[in-house]
Amino acid sequence: MATSNEFMDLPGRLIVVEGIDGSGKSTQLDLLHKWLRSEGYVTVFTEWNSSPIVRDTTKRGKRKQLLTPMSFSLIHAADFASRTHEQILPALQAGVVVLADRYIYTAFARDAARGVNRKWVRDLYSFAPPPDLALYFHVSLEESIRRIGAARAEIKFYEAGMDLGLSEDISESFRLFQGRILREYDTLCDEYDITRIDAHQSLVTQQVLVRDLVEPLLEGMPRREVTNVPTHLQTGYVSLAAGGGL
Amino acid sequence: MTEVRFYGEPPPGIDQDWLPGRLIAIEGTDGVGRSTIISILKDYLEANGWGVVDSGLRRSPLVGPGIDQAKEGHTLDPITLNLFYATDFWDRFERIMLPALQAGMVVLADRYIFSLMARAIVRGAAREWLEQIYGFALIPDQTIYLDIDAEDLVLRILERGFDFWESGGDYLHDRSIYDGFMQHQREQLHEMSRMADRYGWDVVDARGTIEEVFEHVRRAVMPTVESMSRP
Hints:
Chain A is an alpha/beta fold. Chain A has 8 helices and 5 strands. Chain A has a single domain (12-216), classed as Rossmann fold, CATH 3.40.50.
């Protein structure tokens, strides 16, 4: 749709996090968000599958199990397109920092794990501005299952790839499907400029790494005076994601 | 259908290389009379013993309600709108058209991917991108194009009233509804006639009476329908 040249003049910075459920990416992004705000940077946060226009359709599709690999892929692309148009591009044009919890690589990994043609998915998302920094929080399948188990009682149908008929048993299906996604992410890290972070390290160690990577990108970004209003009372505040899941 | 072929990479979930039914796409712009013709053609074919399924835009159980709701707010950008329609198309293809083709029925598609592409192109989406996305579509056995010009079309629309989207209201601001309609339709018709050449459609003059147009369409589709074993 758009060539990458089209995005070269956008003054903002786009920082995205990727990883399977239980990798801790949302927690890391949340900590980054709070730090940037405390430093006075104007930030816009956007989350996978959250467009007010498209979200209800996706929800209905999931609840009624109407989604197949192709319609799953297309409706998530519609959601992403709507957020690109309404949140991401305007913020990049305005020259502020955009933080995205999951980006196009989530679609590349999940859709390919569902058997959708890899080139087709990449073409589908060619309207997306390329990120200035993409962080992949790599965690082993065992560790992610351990973390999810602690945070959530129930695995959802599509998260477990139950639509693919890999196994009748939802835990087993989840394991097989997430394993496929992990392999896709490995490939993506070679194909794209994605920084891999070992998500088995302590939360603080990872956050230090994240901030070191983000800091050089902040040069010239607009800052405002920091008020003494507690962060949780400021608009746009995002609560600490406790095993979010989508 | 002799062979299962797609415009681009084959989508997942379709294992057959051969389908017994026939897929006939009826293309044409807003208000040209597609639905009327399809409804008469369906009755005619059924009366002659063929099984017929018709499918029009925004009727998918997955996306139909979502598109209607989103369009009410007039807030959709061209890319999101197009992806909504692409989802709707795919959902109807998988849920309605494909099973009917597997069962040896005639599928009359009230618009196919082409209208969706034309709408997006006139709103500024890149042609190449659209061709890549819609590469998932099965190549129909036949595409009938109901051809009309904007001057004849507008006379029909006047009787039933103008529609915001059909008049390009979302992207042609500061124009009267008449000027918007004429410009939007001219551009769409231009796109569609390019596609008619490119994809080798059967063009039917849609300016006559319903009976005349139906007779043209009937003659055009019968060889395709009769290439199946007779009922």
